[in-house]
User: Fold this.
Amino acid sequence: MKQINKIFGVLLLLIALSGCNNKYLEYDESLSTVRFIYNIAEQDSVTYSFALHPGVSEDVIDIPIQLIGLTSPVDREVGVEIDKEKTTAKENDNFIIGQSVIQADSITGKLRVNVKKTSNLEDESLVIAFKLSENANFASSPIDKSTYKIILTSKLIEPSDWPFNEYSRVKHEFVIKVTGKGTNYSEWNAQELIYYIGELNKALYEYNKEHPGDFLTDENGLLVTF
Amino acid sequence: MMKKIFIFLLSVVMIIAINSCYNDTGNYDYSQLSNVTITAQDTVYVTQFNTLTVPVEIDLDGMAEDDYTYSWRLWSNEIGNKLKKSISDTKELSYEVVEVPGSYTLVFTTTNKLTNVSEYKTIDLMVQGVISEGWMVLQEKDGKTDFDLIMSPYFSERHQEDIILRNLYESVNGEPLQGHGLKISNYFALGRYQYVVILTDEGGVRLSATTMQKTYDLSTLMFDEKPLQPENYFYFDYYWCLGRGNEVIISDGRYYINELLGEGYTEPILKDGETYRASKWGPKQLWTFKGMIYDELNGRFLGIQNPYLTATPLPEAVGRKFDWNNMGAKLLYMDTGFKHYDYGLMEDWDTQELSLYVLNFDVKNNFDVAMYSADNIPELANAKYYAIGERGNVFFYATDKDIYLYDYAGSNTGNKAHSVPIDERITNMKIFKPLVDRYITSHPYDNKILILSTHNDNTGEGKIYMYKFNESVGTIEKESEKVFDGFGRILDMDYNYAKYGS
Assistant:
């Protein structure tokens, strides 16, 4: 009987001790890095056209960055360097990179880039290419999310949400002149879009009336209509 | 071993015992706690616009009532509702509840004047709604515009007796309506979207149809930001498209349209320098077109179509009864009538002759249905108010004193049908039309009640008269007269639909 009690006792002890066995996966707390956040289409670049922002000669572009790893109670600077091989824009003349920081207890940050309009942007597009680099705070970034490009231009480009049928540069300029808006047209609700198309038709009528025989025509030789 | 345990336990007991001997020498200012007890219901129900009374029993522990102050406070439990107010400073609460239906907290506080010690009783207050379908009466009284809501067994089976909610706008919104009233109307789309619109000479407001809370200043919904000079408002649903429709504001000759669930009013698109001046009236039975302007500038109709609500002239009217592109007349009144046609009374620009045109804009072409010469119809030229029935060839018109029935489809004559009392004059006339295509499909009095408003210039009192009439031919049953009084100068009136699904 004493033997049986001993066996039971040992078994109970083993069962109790087995409860202390930690089977949870452990996160590698030592891993800490960052990556760029691409848009839904996974594009690794953004085009900034000064032509879409009338009257603006300097602007700020924020490129979002995602933390991979655990948050920290202190601010951590992100290592960013210019990819000189791919960059055609001139630092200080066309752009200035600001400090990029993942703030304390935050899982995202941003790379702030000041962009400047120069006369050569009328003729050519310039590229600013960045890559995330290893530093004391963060290890190397995943290779597929470590680069980003800004394409600077002063030419009009067709916005992805262009709502005025056929696109042309002349039509786009006319829209900006009448509505003061060069991009992000999807910000208008349906009724607002109707209102602006009405305003564009009125303005187009007035323009054509003031230019008899020389109606507003686009770069392809087609009459502009809305 | 036992000895050690005993010594340990004894030590613990000693420490506890010694700790209780600690002398608290702190310098505190103690107040005598009150022995007041408050007894009241934990939950109270009240109907909006009724008087709230809450019986409270207080045991003051032998103190005099004068030694205490009392207060009642109220706050909303609804997220986003920041209402918080004091409603009484007497023990006996008697408060007319204007708060919108919902859940509230009511707190009764009694405070000892000498010690400032308070006792509280928290009560859950449930305000139940009372606003339902009924007849809205926009009026001016004592220099202020507001509206009353008549809820009656005439309009709904849910009411066993007549109830009139007075000055609803100010009661609910806590501020008077700005400007002089012009128009009150309703909007009902897809069941879920119901509101009331009031136009004034200073703009207007949109209200929730179920609570009458202001939701928008209309001026904030006008994209062109031109000052509102409202002339008319109407809503029309598309018969062939479940629940969809548009609302229209006519302001300073401009036709502003708000498509279903659109978030603002805009003029339609006009191409190639097209211009117009909109009549305050317009067709409402539409499907091919999203809207239809009667252009007073050119005496024609302009159809509004997709894409993007573009207004264009209608197809040519070759060989038709009349030329809808060249009416050459002023539109005096238009409404949807029998067989869902639009009936327009027009005055020729040159001859001033009157004609009644019947149009069908539910098709893509051949809009002419009929034209009746109305030039010799008694007092029609002096008429100020009109009402057209949809269940028969019924056309009422009224001067200041008399109501006439125009038998356009039969003898093409007009006959006096009724007169108002000698010291009153008519200020408005409507036919009761409570249906919404496909949503509210039947009502026992649909198109069977004529509603008049009158004003007595000597007493300043306004009245509402309701009469049943034969919906096929318009004969008024004078013995059915029902009167509501106690109004000011009535400016306009319309039906407020029942909350969908209620």
Notes: The first helix of chain B runs from residue 2 to 19. Residues 37-128 of chain B form a domain with the Immunoglobulin-like fold (CATH 2.60.40.10). The two ends of chain B are 81 Å apart (CA to CA).
